[in-house]
Design brief:
By secondary structure, the chain is α/β, with parallel strands linked by helices. The chain has 14 helices and 21 strands. The structure holds flavin-adenine dinucleotide and 1,4-dihydronicotinamide adenine dinucleotide (NAI). The site of flavin-adenine dinucleotide has 38 residues, from helix 1, strand 2, helix 2, helix 3 and strand 3.
Length: 475
């Protein structure tokens, strides 16, 4: 006997589990199927984000940042330390415990919201009367009948052609989060978000880190002024970043990995490292879904084709998160999940793609929302810019972390905020104010007139807004 549901969600990452919770909150009888296994073979919902992405990477960034503070900054505060050491096994154990807390938290949330959870692989069997038949292959095999289906099957790391991940020497994000000892020499291919975050973790712990990037510009999607400032800071920390390279043959032996590449001038080079992380982007995942069998349309990248509301070409089938177009970010997946659940329930779910924030959790952190200066120039929109350096912010001085700035871009005529870009301490938290402001279509003057607590890093946000009108008070 098939179990019947109003909504079946395939995939329990941030897109899927949040969609399931919202659908259940709206009174829909909802199931979520997720196949991720923990090291004991049990369920580990939360997807890439919880298991091998956002959460474990931030746990390791935190541990390594503590280490870097102890090694390089405690002395300024008069704190002396002898015999500083890092127990990598313990650090990884803490990271695993943080991951488990999040897995367990999601299972608890399913219970609390009456979402039925199935541990296993979900796939389309066929269209059925008023919906779809979905098979679950797992510890117990089941057949479900769903009136509506939300596909949230996420993404996988992209490998270099002919260089599969062995997760020992050639690592994806998964292996990069499980390196058992600080490598003496670490190589990374791709200076995107993972390259910089993972490179930072192991650099802080003492590895010699070299990043090889194909593009001639550093962090091309980031506002140029912010990217330059970040590049300066990373170089000072000892990250070697080579731009404009062409990666050639990669060889592995007992001693490690050798990467042949042509540098920006075309000269042949080799990089010898103990471990190599390949972080050159991710590919949408529809493995085992039987998309072909039911005629679910994919694009040339393998992403499920959806409209602006996450509707696929099949009636009653929706798709959200990394498996569809748009930025591969957990909060984007969540917003889409909520909006789809609301649409299924007859509400008007909405995602504002113009105000999705980006954060790179390096030190200094990089965060932004809206358009960059180069995008505004390219579109011909007249704008005003205002910047304020953390060097002139009292809280940043007290923290001992004065790298970077806040930058506002506002429409030249209306003063509406078009973009906010931050490189510096706690940029990940500071960006929220800019997201709120842009969501309410605020002007830079609105932020400039709002009282900000003193001393706080957020005063740099206010001052950058004042700088748009050339009237900073503290710089
Ligand atoms: P996923 O999280 O990939 O979840 C998909 C789930 O579906 C998985 O559990 C998978 O096992 C399951 N699944 C797939 N197929 C099936 C099937 N047929 N049946 C059952 N289950 C199935 N984003 C941020 O916003 N902030 C960050 O700080 C951040 N850090 C990251 C760090 C790293 C190292 C990586 C790799 C990614 C990071 N991301 C971050 C990106 C973020 O993890 C993804 O954008 C997010 O996880 C996408 O969510 P999703 O629900 O679409 O897919
Ligand atoms: P990415 O798209 O951020 O960066 C990939 C980089 O690799 C690019 O700079 C690209 O030019 C380069 N590249 C591609 N092919 C190359 C080649 N053959 N040789 C050298 N360089 C090459 O992808 P990344 O870092 O793998 O991360 C995947 C996604 O995961 C991110 O785009 C982001 O959506 C998400 N993520 C988000 C995080 C966050 O929000 N803090 C953290 C980590 C990942």
């Amino acid at each position: 006997m098939s179990k019947q549901f109003d909504v079946v969600v395939i995939g329990g990452g941030p897109g899927g589990y949040i969609a399931a919770i919202r659908a259940a909150q709206l009174g829909l009888n909802t199931a979520c199927i997720d196949e991720w296994k923990n090291d004991k073979g049990g369920p580990a919902p939360g997807g890439t984000c919880t298991n091998v992405g956002c959460i474990p990477s931030k746990a390791l960034l935190q541990s390594s940042e503590h280490y870097a503070h102890a090694a390089h900054h405690f002395a300024e505060h008069g704190i002396g330390l002898k015999d500083l050491s890092i127990d990598v096994k313990k650090m990884l154990g803490r990271k695993d415990a943080v991951v488990k807390q999040n897995n367990d938290g999601i299972l608890y949330l399913f219970k609390k919201n009456k979402v039925t959870f199935f541990h296993g692989r979900g796939s389309f069997v066929k269209a059925a009367e008023a919906g779809y038949e979905i098979a679950v292959a797992g510890a117990a095999n089941e057949t479900l009948l769903a009136k509506q289906v939300i596909v949230a099957t996420g993404s996988n790391a992209r490998a270099l052609p002919g260089v599969p991940f062995d997760e020992d020497s050639i690592l994806s994000n998964d292996g990069a989060l499980r390196i058992g000892a600080v490598p003496r020499r670490l190589g990374l291919i791709g200076s995107g978000v993972i390259g910089l975050e993972m490179g930072s973790v192991w650099r802080r712990l003492g590895a010699e880190v070299t990043v090889l990037e194909a593009l001639p510009t550093f962090l091309g999607a980031v506002d140029e002024q912010i990217a330059k400032e970040a590049h300066k800071a990373f170089t000072k920390q000892g990250l070697k970043i080579e731009l404009g390279v062409k990666v050639g043959e990669i060889k592995t032996d007992k001693k490690g990995v050798t990467v042949a590449y042509a540098d920006a001038k075309g000269a042949a080079q080799t990089l010898a490292v103990d471990k190599l992380i390949v972080s050159i982007g991710r590919v949408p995942n529809t493995t085992g879904l039987n998309a072909d069998g039911v005629g679910l349309k994919l694009d040339e990248r393998g992403a499920i084709v959806v409209d602006g509301d996450c509707r696929t070409n099949l009636p009653g089938v929706w798709a959200v998160g990394d498996v569809v177009r748009g930025p591969m970010l957990a909060h984007k997946a969540e917003e889409e999940g909520v909006a789809v659940a609301e649409r299924i329930a007859g509400q008007h779910g909405h995602v504002d793609f113009n105000t999705i924030p980006w954060v790179i959790y390096t030190s200094p952190e990089i965060a932004w929302v809206g358009q960059t200066e180069q995008q505004l120039k390219a579109s011909g929109r007249a704008y005003k810019a205002g910047t304020f350096p953390f060097l002139a912010n009292g809280r940043a001085r007290a923290l001992g972390d004065t790298t970077g700035m806040v930058k506002f871009l506002a429409d030249a005529a209306t003063d509406e905020i078009l973009g906010v870009h931050i490189v510096g301490p706690m940029a990940s938290e500071l960006i929220a104010e800019a997201v709120v402001a842009m969501s309410f279509r605020a002007s830079s003057e609105d932020i400039a007139r709002i009282c900000h607590a003193h001393p706080s890093l957020s005063e740099a946000t206010k001052e950058a807004a004042l700088a748009v009108d050339r009237r900073t008070l503290n710089f």
